[in-house]
Specification:
Residues 431-452 are annotated as: Disordered. One of its GO terms (molecular function) is transposase activity. Residues 135-361 form the Transposase IS4-like domain. By secondary structure, the protein is of the alpha+beta class. It folds into two domains: 13-112 and 350-419, no CATH class; 113-331, Transposase Inhibitor Protein From Tn5, Chain A, domain 1, CATH 3.90.350.10. Helix content is 40%, strand content 17%. The chain has helices spanning 5-18, 27-33, 38-48, 60-72, 78-84, 98-108, 111-128, 152-158, 198-203, 224-232, 268-273, 309-315, 320-333, 345-370, 383-393, 405-414, 448-451, and strands spanning 137-147, 162-163, 166-167, 172-180, 186-193, 213-217, 237-242, 249-256, 259-265, 280-290, 293-299. The strands form two sheets. Strands 5-4-1-6-7-11-10-9-8 form a nine-stranded mixed β-sheet, sandwiched between helices. A two-stranded antiparallel sheet has the order 2-3. The radius of gyration is 24 Å and the shape is globular.
C-alpha cells in the first residue's frame, strides 16, 4: 500500500486535538477521535504487565503504531516504517537504528497488542449499533492458517504440514476468529500451532461472544459439547451449522413439512470431555431444496414463531462473509504476501495481533462511512477502495489549517456511496479445486512452447 496508514492516524489524532473547539458537536469526529485512546492503550499495557520506565526514543505507545504499520505498509521493512512515518519522540535524531526497532518490539511483546485489540473491538462494537435478524446479531466462526518464516524456533513452536517423507513447506499458525458479519469487525480470536484442533480454539471464544447473537459455524465445528457450552454461556447465544451426513437423531415433533424438533444423543467420550453436557440435546432441523440439492441446517433456535423456517436455511449463506474477511486481510491488507515477516514465535504473535488490529481500524472507518449511505451495510462497500480513500485522502490533509479538518472529513464521508459494490450475482459459482501445497521454493514458470 503506497500511502501510509500510520501517518494518517497519528496526524489525524493531533489534528483532532487542535480542532476540538471547532469540531464540537460533530459526531464523526468524536468517533474518529476515539481511535486508540491513550487511556485505553495505557489500560492495555497495565493488563499486560508492561510499562515504560524511562524515556526512550521509541516508547511503547509508538511501538503500537509500528506494529500496525507493519500490516498497513506491507511493502516496507519495519525499520522503514519507523523512520518514514516518524514514529519516535519529538526532538530526537531523525533516524532510528534497526536494533532499536527490534528492541522496541521485544519490550512491547505480543500480550500488550492483544489487549489493545480486545479493548478497541469492545468499544467499537458498543458504538456500532449492528443490524440484527430476529433480534440477534449475526456472527460467524471459522479457521484460517498463516504461513511463517522457516526458522527453527517457528518450526518447533508451530509445526507444519507433513507427509510420508516428514514435514513439508513453511511452519504455519492456525487461527480461529469470530466476526460480526454486517461490518466485518472482528470480535475475538485464538491461535496455536498448525496441528491444533480448531474446535479447541473455538472454545476459547465462548466467553467473548456477545449475548443475543447467532453464530454461524462450518460443519467441521460439529461438537455437541462445544455447541451446548456456547448456548448455555450467556443469554440468547444461538448457533447454526449444516447437518453432517453421519449425524444420528430422533424426530420429536414435526413443525412443518421440512421443519422438525429433534433429539441428539451425546457420547460418553463427549460427556467426559464436557462434564456439563447432558445425555441428550434438543435442536431444530430444517431442510430446503436449493437448485435441486437438499440443504439441511441444524440450529438451537427452536421457537418456530420467533424464528421463521423459510429464512433460517437462506441465512447460512451469510457465513461466507468471514471468508471474504480473511481474503481482505491476506490479499488486500497484506498485498498477497502470505508469509509473515517475524522470525520468532513471540514476534509472530505480535505481528498477527497487529494485523487484526489494523484490519479492525480500517473496518471501523468503513462502518462510519456507511452511516452516510442509508440501506448500505459496511460489508457491501469495497474494502480496497475504501482503504485507499481513508489512508490516501486523509493522509494528504494539511495540519497547517486544522480548521479545515471537519470539512475534509465531511467530504470523505459524503463520497462513501462511490465505494458501494454492485449487487452480488446469485448465479456465480466457485467450485472447489485442489490447490498446490505451499513451498518455500519458487514455482517454475512455463515456457512459451508449453503455453501454445
Amino acid at each position: 500500500m503506497p500511502v501510509s496508514g500510520i501517518g494518517f492516524f497519528m496526524r489525524l489524532s493531533r489534528a483532532l486535538a487542535l480542532t476540538h473547539d471547532v469540531a464540537a458537536g460533530t459526531q464523526s469526529l468524536e468517533g474518529l477521535g476515539a481511535l486508540l485512546d491513550p487511556e485505553l492503550v495505557k489500560s492495555a499495557f497495565e493488563s499486560a504487565g508492561i510499562a515504560t520506565i524511562r524515556k526512550r526514543r521509541l516508547p511503547l505507545e509508538a511501538m503500537i503504531w509500528c506494529v500496525i504499520g507493519m500490516a498497513l505498509c506491507r511493502r516496507m521493512s519495519t525499520w522503514d516504517v519507523v523512520n518514514h512515518l516518524d514514529i519516535r519522540l519529538p526532538g530526537q535524531r531523525p533516524l532510528v537504528a534497526p536494533s532499536a526497532v527490534v528492541q522496541g518490539r521485544q519490550r512491547l511483546g505480543s500480550e500488550a497488542v492483544r489487549e489493545v485489540f480486545a479493548l478497541t473491538q469492545r468499544r467499537w462494537h458498543e458504538t456500532a449499533h449492528h443490524p440484527t435478524w430476529a433480534g440477534l446479531r449475526l456472527l460467524s466462526v471459522d479457521g484460517v492458517v498463516w504461513r511463517t518464516p522457516d526458522t527453527p524456533e517457528n518450526r518447533e513452536r508451530y509445526g507444519s504440514a507433513s507427509n510420508q517423507h516428514g514435514d513439508t513447506g513453511f511452519p504455519q499458525v492456525r487461527m480461529v476468529c469470530q466476526m460480526e458479519l454486517t461490518s466485518h469487525l472482528l470480535v475475538s480470536s485464538a491461535l496455536a500451532g498448525y496441528h491444533s484442533n480448531e474446535m479447541k480454539l473455538a472454545e476459547q471464544l465462548i466467553e467473548s461472544t456477545p449475548d443475543h447473537s447467532l453464530t454461524l459455524f462450518d460443519r467441521g465445528f460439529y461438537s455437541l459439547g462445544l455447541l451446548h457450552r456456547w448456548q448455555r454461556t450467556g443469554t440468547q447465544r444461538h448457533w447454526l451449522l449444516p447437518l453432517r451426513k453421519d449425524t444420528q437423531y430422533e424426530v420429536v415433533q414435526r413443525l412443518g413439512r421440512q421443519d422438525a424438533l429433534v433429539t441428539l444423543h451425546t457420547s460418553p467420550q463427549a460427556r467426559k470431555q464436557w462434564p456439563d453436557l447432558p445425555e441428550t440435546l434438543q435442536a431444530r432441523l430444517l431442510s430446503k431444496t436449493i437448485k435441486g440439492k437438499v440443504r439441511q441446517i441444524l440450529t438451537s433456535m427452536t421457537d418456530p414463531l420467533r424464528f421463521p423456517s423459510d429464512e433460517i436455511v437462506d441465512l447460512y449463506s451469510q457465513r461466507w462473509e468471514i471468508e471474504l474477511g480473511y481474503r481482505e486481510m491476506k490479499q488486500g491488507l497484506l498485498a498477497s504476501h502470505y508469509t509473515l515477516r517475524s522470525k520468532t514465535p513471540e514476534m509472530i504473535e505480535q505481528e498477527l495481533w497487529g494485523v487484526l488490529l489494523a484490519y479492525n481500524l480500517l473496518r471501523y472507518q468503513m462502518l462510519e462511512m456507511s452511516r452516510h449511505c442509508p440501506g448500505i451495510y459496511p460489508c457491501e462497500m469495497s474494502f480496497t477502495a475504501c482503504t485507499w480513500a481513508i489512508l490516501g485522502f486523509l493522509n494528504g490533509t494539511s495540519l497547517n489549517h486544522p480548521g479545515n479538518i471537519p470539512r475534509y472529513l465531511a467530504e470523505l464521508q459524503a463520497s462513501a456511496r462511490h465505494y458501494v459494490l454492485p449487487h452480488r450475482r446469485e448465479d456465480r459459482r466457485y467450485p472447489r479445486v485442489v490447490r498446490p501445497k505451499p513451498s518455500k521454493y519458487p514455482t517454475k514458470n512455463k515456457n512459451a512452447s508449453q503455453l501454445n
